[in-house]
Amino acid sequence: MSLVKVDVGGGVARLLLDSPANRNALSTQLRTELYAALQDAIDADDVRSIVLSHNGTVFCSGADLKEVRDGPPAPGTPTVPQILVDIWRSPKPVIAVLAGVARAGGLGLAAACDVVIASSSVSFACTEVHLGVVPAVISAVMRPRMMSAAIHQLYLTGLAVSAQWAHQAGLVDVVVEPERLDDELRRYTDAFNLAAPQALAATKRLSRSDGAIAALQTELAELEKLSARYFASEEGREGLAAFAEKRSPRWAQPG
User: Among residues 100, 153, 177, 255, which is most buried (max CB within 10 A)?
Assistant: First the structure.
């Protein structure tokens, strides 16, 4: 069963994360399908913009922690850094539309997009420190978007914040009531349909140049090592075990 639904029409490629039972976690299958769908949308002559959205109450919960505990993925499996880079350098604008909450790596997926539209009812949280790991990889695409003090608070506390807070911090571009998500999305896709494709791509490169993309790739390679080190650490192993066993990790202090 496919975990990424694709619909192309009216100049728009809509990529829908469709693994609600797994909170749209970035499993091996979902990453593989999303990576392929992005490539197809980027290569399609009839696509002017790409929409990344979801089924279910969660946009994306981040890493598939069960898979992480089971061991490394097969060689050649698309990684989160590869997906973030492809979104970042896509010559076609990528719009994230969130009708559900985002957690951990899901924030990075949204932050890499050119436009982030969120329902006023959703929340965001970077919960990595509660699991004994570090929000390393996603920081490469979140830092350019967000106020430094806000991202500092978000990472250190692991607490959930509102869509309005995320908007003020720079993570989200537009917050609308849930029933207005489709209308707001259409406002952007209509605008991109009116733009000359080559001019639009060149305009995007003004802020996401080849040099910036190369720097991002270098940074992501180092951050991926940092992330892997903490997942393999004593705290990381205990945090993943506690999550699987639905208990508090050993380091947690009673309030």
Answer: 100
